[in-house]
Structures are given as structure tokens and as C-alpha cells.
Amino acid sequence: MHLPSVSTDPKHTDFWFLPLGGTGEIGMNLNLYGHAGSWLMVDCGATFNVPLRPEFDKRFDIHREAFVIPDPAFIVDKVDQLAGIVITHAHEDHIGALLHVWSKLQCPIYTTAFTAEVIRRKFYSAEIFVELPIVEVNSGDDLDIGPFNVRWLSITHSIPEPQALLISTPLGDVFHTADWKIDKAPVVGNKFKPSRFKALAHKNIIAMVCDSTNALRKGYSISEKECEKGLGALISKATGRVVVSCFASNLARVITLARIAQQTGRYVALAGRSLENMVSIARLTGHWPDELSFTPLRHIGYLPPHEVMIVATGSQGEPNAALSKMATGVFRACLLEKGDSVIFSSIVIPGNEAFIEKVLQQLRDIGVNVTQSENSTHIIHASGHPNELDLQDMYSWVKPNCAVPTHGESAHMLANANIAREAGVLKQVVGTNGDVFDLVNAALFPSFTDVARLAIK
Questions:
Q1: Is the entire prediction scored with pTM above 0.85?
Q2: Which residues form the Metallo-beta-lactamase domain (predicted)?
Q3: 117 lies in the same domain as 181
Q4: What are the tens digits of pLDDT across the range 275-303?
Q5: Which of 100, 230, 239, 247 is the most exposed place for a label (fewest CB within 10 A)?
């Protein structure tokens, strides 16, 4: 065994996992795998932290958000050893830091066509005009990246083209799940295929590095298809305008809403640049159904309220988003009135409670009927992460030698480890950002590198 305290460079006899973000927290995923003097980065994400100066902001009623990313100093100092960056999917907590760190890394980026287009547009919107060395891959592709062999495995999540990874070296294979769930009716993309993961049991899977987000939730995760029934029931009963706020990246939800609009005789419009951008990318990459279309937002104000549906950004109470403008009466396309309905087809992300509550109160003051997923009698939101039984099934199919929970706070990761143990996985290694996980020996070396955060206004 080669102790990281002796050297921070992995040898041919080492296969290491080093998270700089996303382990011990939800979001901000940035992972490194080390072998034979080289490193492979998996994901490069960001998160938001609010507010920066709470007393000052409260006094002057200022709401500021800091864009926060993991500090990449460790790998920047070893950039000549970085073989490449693999991006598993296009959520902000997996791609958001690329804008700020890629110039220091200057290495190839490997990802699917949908995610590649999201990344390119992010750089363009930030006026960073560079020819990114993106290598577009398809599910099932098998590529050598430095001393690592990487195979992309299609999985189900809440965005198009999510990928799990099989990362192989002569020392064994690691199954990196990234974000996932078992969804047999995902609306976008193919349904979950257990056979794909059962086949991994015949390989030498020395570790399964696994999403822990919903490990504390019982049962199986809810299928995206279930939201169609719940949203359809609510919208069909509404008498005024209907505004539905959801995450812009959840194109399956937007498709579902467009279909419900057709079924209920409503014209549907998009309110929010991020939604328009995601739908545009979906059309470009073949994920948008040809039969579904949108009414230009500028026409919505001229239509009878009972014929209107708006899909809007702002589910987290963001002050400049479309929903917040509607709540304050400054939305140019239309004014909400008493009897209209606003549906939050989303969850409350911890830290955003005050922002959301402010919008909710403003909507109630107008007389708008408000429904949140947390208090709805119908299913109107489905998480993209695995519950207890999803995890149990995956561990029993893959049969790894060791479980490495990630993408969660301490309680989530400990629950994940317990599920792995009950599923027959003999070893579980739980650590946090900055620790080195020796995957060959199922051992942990704490505080391998200092972990810092960079806040970007």
C-alpha cells in the first residue's frame, strides 16, 4: 500500500478517488481519480451560497448570490498529469465550475452531445469565445483517456443523456454512478435497464462510487411519468391562468406540461431565458417531440385567462426570475389576478426558504391559488435521485467489493453505507472532500489536500 502522506502522485499500484467537492455536501461535484501518475477529473460543478453579507443585505434589502465552486488548486498544480475531464450530465452542480477553471486546465472534455451543447452555450453567454476541445461520446462508447479506460453507461435522471461511468485500470474497475434513479418511464430518453448493471457483477468492480442524495427516503423513487397524472389533475380543474414553475433543465417536465396544455385546451408559453435555451438545445439534439410547440410569450396577455398556461423560471424564489416578476406585478407579458393558479413543480432547495416564502406571500396577497409539491395531494414533482430501494437493487446487481457513498451530507452517506452493507457489500468507506480513498485496499487517508471554496460574484 502506498500512503498518500509519502507522495501525492498515484503509482501504478494505486487507484485513488479524491473528491474536491460533492462528498459531505449536496452539489458542487468535482472528483478526481488517480492512477499511474495521472488524474482523471469527473464533473466540475458549482453551487450557490446566499447571502454574502447578511446584516448589510438585510438593512438595505439587498439579495445577493455568490457563485461558489471547489478550489481546483490541487489539480492545477498537477495540470500536466490531468488526462481529461469527463462530464456525466448537464446539471449546474456538475458543469458550473468549468467556466472558471477550464482556462487553468486546458485539457479535453468528454461528454454527450446534449451536455456538450449546454457547455458551449454557457461559455458563449459568458463571452468566453474559445474553441473548446470537447470530444462528444455516445452511451456505450469505450475510450482510453490516459491510463484510464472509460465506458459510458446510459442511466436515468432528471435531464437528457445522463451517464454513469465504468472506469477501468489494470487494478480493477470502478462503477461511478453519478446522479441517477430507477425510472421505468422517464419521458425523455430510454427507460432504466437493470440488465446493463447486472452485467457489471461479472467484472472486477472494486468500488461503486454512488449518489447518496435520497438515501434517507424509503421505498423506490417516483417515476417522472407519475407527474403527468398529478399535474394534469390540478391543471384541468383550474379556471384562471396557470403558471407552473420548474427547474429549467428538467425537459421531461416541460414536455409533460406542453402535453397537458394540448389536452386541456390551453396555449402554453415559456417565461425565462434558461427555459428557452434548454428547449432550444433539446430541439437541436433530438430530444424535443415535433408535435409540441409554444405560443410566443408576447401573445399571452391577449388570450382569455382560462386558455393560458405559462411555464416559468423562479421555483427557488430568485428575485430576477419570471415568477418573482409576476408576483410583484412587473412581468411585461401579463398580470396575475385573483383566481389564477401557480404550481411549484419542484422542491425547496435548502437555503432558499426565505426567497420562496417571500414570493409565496406576494402571490397570496394577489389572491392566486398556490400549490407546492410538498403540500400537494397529487404527485407534481419527482426527484432524480435514488431512494433506499433503488440503492439496494443497484448494490445487489453490481456486487462491488466496496461502497463509496458520495453526493450527500454525512447523514445521507452513512445511510447509503448502511444500505450497501444490508445488500451484501462487505466494505463501506465513508469520507469527505479532500480525503483520498484507496479503492484497491478499501482504505481512507484523511486530509490528503486542503479543501477550499472560491466565491465568484
A1: yes
A2: 27-231
A3: yes
A4: 999 999 999 999 999 999 999 999 999 99
A5: 239
